[in-house]
């Protein structure tokens, strides 16, 4: 009995202290004014911290296909007809060409509508509508440009290197060389599309330029011929065959081992 009474007597002061609302004695080493409040990151509690989850994200299918295609083009042996599109004009070489193309943009839909409305208003008033020569502008569209090349009306053909599928334009350089038409390859089909008010353009053609731009066109044709049409080695060079870093290191080790083995045999 005495033992039970002693236990109950010891428990009563603790219960009374809890009921009285007195603060518990702070843990040794803690600041009583700024008690620690550890965060709980379970569901419905504290907000999760920002983490870099990029390695856990699954890329969209079209991105994976683009990357796999790029790797395949590096690994496989690429025939010369396709490999020539990887040797396009760099930025410095393309600047004169792009400046020339910017001068010969065709009219937009709004400009055409305004011109036709103006001509209709003049015709309704009984005034004479001026009939001038057709404006000198860039020609675009794969079928249209092909016809211009076959008729030898094109002065310069500009081909995009990132056309997909590449089979759409892979035959154009050979046709240009056969018909004696200078051609240039540039990197961006979206950039070519801007010159003709389209989202993308696979190929553009210049059929004529103003007399003030004849010298600039001649220089561009000269540089394009030197890089593409007249450069037989570049046109006949196979591409690809570049292995990954691990494979390259393994092949280097194998080559060194073979050299060491041949040196040993030579010394025997």
Task: Describe what this molecule looks like in 3D.
The protein is an alpha+beta fold and 268 residues long. The protein has a domain at 62-107 and 134-238: Ribosomal protein L30/S12 (60s Ribosomal Protein L30, Chain: A), CATH 3.30.1330.30. It is 50% helix and 7% strand. α4 packs across α9. The model is unreliable at 5-20 (pLDDT under 50).
Lay out the secondary structure:
Elements: H1 2-20, H2 61-75, E1 77-78, H3 80-83, H4 91-102, H5 109-124, E2 139-140, H6 142-150, E3 156-160, H7 172-179, E4 183-186, H8 189-195, E5 203-206, H9 214-229, H10 232-235, E6 239-240, H11 245-267
Parallel strand pairs: 3-4
Antiparallel strand pairs: 1-6, 2-5, 3-5
What descriptors fit this protein?
60s Ribosomal Protein L30, Chain: A, single chain, alpha+beta, 268 residues
Q: Low-confidence spans: pLDDT under 50, at least 5 residues?
A: 5-20
Q: Which sequence of SSEs, written as H and E, runs from N to C?
A: HHEHHHEHEHEHEHHEH
Q: What is the CATH topology descriptor of the domain at 62-107 and 134-238?
A: 60s Ribosomal Protein L30, Chain: A
Total number of beta strands: 6
Gyration radius (Cα, Å) is: 37 Å
Strand share of the residues?
Answer: 5-15%
Distance between the termini: 103 Å
CATH level 1 class label of the domain at 62-107 and 134-238: Alpha Beta
Looking at this structure, what is the CATH superfamily of the domain at 62-107 and 134-238?
Ribosomal protein L30/S12
Label the overall shape: flat
How does the major sheet shape up? 4 strands, mixed
Annotated CATH architecture of the domain at 62-107 and 134-238: 2-Layer Sandwich
**What is the helix fraction of residues, given as a range?**
40-55%
Overall mean confidence score, pLDDT: 86
